[in-house]
Amino acid sequence: MDKPNRLTNKINVGVIGLGRMGKIHLKNLMQAITHANVVAVADPVYPEEQFRKEYGDLLFVKDVIELITSPDVDAIIIATPTSTHAALVEQCIDNDKSVFCEKPLDLSLEITKTLLQKAENLGVPLMIGFNRRFDRDFMEARKAVSEGKIGNPQIVKITNRDPSLPSIEFVKTSGGMFMDFTIHDFDMARYMMDKEVVEVYAKGLVFFDEEMAKVGDVDTALTTLTFADGTYAVLDNSRKAVFGYDQRLEIFGDKGMIQVENNLANRNVLYNENGIHQALPLNSFTQRYIDSYCKEMEAFIGALLNKTPVPIKNEDIIMATLLAYAAKKSMDEQRPVKIAEMK
Ligand SMILES: NC(=O)c1ccc[n+]([C@@H]2O[C@H](COP(=O)([O-])OP(=O)(O)OC[C@H]3O[C@@H](n4cnc5c(N)ncnc54)[C@H](O)[C@@H]3O)[C@@H](O)[C@H]2O)c1
Question: Whose CA is nearest to atom 21 of ligand 1?
Fold first, then answer.
């Protein structure tokens, strides 16, 4: 790379992929995370002229390998389509670059395990973007559960519904409902309950777009997880909620209950003769989870700086991927699937 911008007192970062997530991570790294220094961005497709308009003289390369092999870069952020993650992560590990990669690491459980093991063996930090663990409301809920405020948690209910259908092109390569979408909820259910899942029972169907069925996916799914002590998670997913990005969570225990409600576009409540009216929920993940993306990146950079383990364990990544597999198997075979049979 011709214009290195390396600083010695910071984590020098390269960002790969400048789409929806890449832009969020880049902005956070440049504006909010004081211990990060963005050295360069790589995207083989993004128009250079557009990049110049948006980011001035920040170094931009088309060749991702140039970025991954640069001695000026300590850590790489991967925000490219899922199908490209595994190869890019492996190249980062081979070049001793710490990696933050968007979820899922890969659609194959075997490849996921192999890459995590390889990174661990070579001592390369590797973190996957389960950003909801860094959401303020969910973190508060987790803290209250761990402090015993609702007693023994018996049921966690997670509602995760997108406002509008993804394109069929995206659906074809994303990994489908469970691997692309419910994967956040598999992780949140384990995080909230702090227990291990022993059984998955999932059902799903297509309500909105028959094209989805043709590519083997569903737009609506309901999954029950059973934990080792017999307690439950209920995961409710849709790809199309006409009222917005529906993100709610409830944990019920023998001493109480915690609810996390939707974040609305504003907090006003209008009362009149027709009823009581509130704004709709925020309309996308880029709004609802914006703070969590910053916090997760702060946690990644902080771990590198302090040489502490990244805050999401390999086991968490493996279990979320395994649960996505088990849910698809359960839906396809129309039966509950034991985790023991997946292992
Ligand atoms: N954590 C979350 O909440 C969340 C939300 C949305 C997406 N994601 C994940 O983030 C990833 C990216 O999703 P997105 O919605 O930002 O995608 P996107 O399509 O908006 O952007 C992808 C970018 O990567 C670039 N690209 C394509 N192939 C590349 C390659 N081989 N090397 C380098 N760059 C390449 C494209 O030009 C594009 O700019 C996906 O894995 C997705 O699952 C996570």
Answer: 19
185 in ligand 1 pocket by Cβ < 6 Å? no
Average pLDDT over residues 228-235: 98
Atom of ligand 1 nearest to the CA of 23: 16
Side chain identity, residue 271: Y
Cβ-contact 328, 178 below 8 angstroms: yes
- Measured from the CA of 170, which atom of ligand 1 is nearest? 19
Structure tokens at 336: 């509950």
Q: Which fold has domain 132-342?
A: Dihydrodipicolinate Reductase; domain 2 (3.30.360)
Those residues with Cβ within 8 angstroms of residue 307's Cβ, 6 or more apart along the chain or in another chain: none
Q: Please tell me if the CB atom of residue 81 comes closer than 6 angstroms to any atom of ligand 1.
A: yes
- Average pLDDT along the chain: 96
Domain extents in the chain: 11-128, 132-342
Tens digits of residue pLDDT in 94-148: 999 999 999 999 999 999 999 999 999 999 999 999 999 999 999 999 999 999 9
Q: Are 219 and 209 in contact (CB under 8 A)?
A: yes
Torsion, Cα 269 274 279 283, to 10 degrees, reads 160
Q: Is 169 in the pocket of ligand 1 (CB under 6 A)?
A: no
pLDDT band at 2 (very low <50, low <70, confident <90, very high): low
| CA dist., res. 193 & res. 146, Å (int) | 9
Q: 309: which 2 tokens? A: 């383990």
User: What confidence tens digit (pLDDT) does each residue in 243-269 have?
Assistant: 999 999 999 999 999 999 999 999 999
Q: What does the radius of gyration of the chain's CA atoms come to, in whole angstroms?
A: 21
CATH class of the structural domain 11-128? alpha beta
Atom of ligand 1 nearest to the CA of 46: 37
Q: Cβ(47) to ligand 1 under 6 A? A: no
* 27 CA to centre of own chain: 18
Give this prediction's pTM. Answer: 0.96
Is 216:204 a contact under the CB 8 Å cutoff?
Answer: no
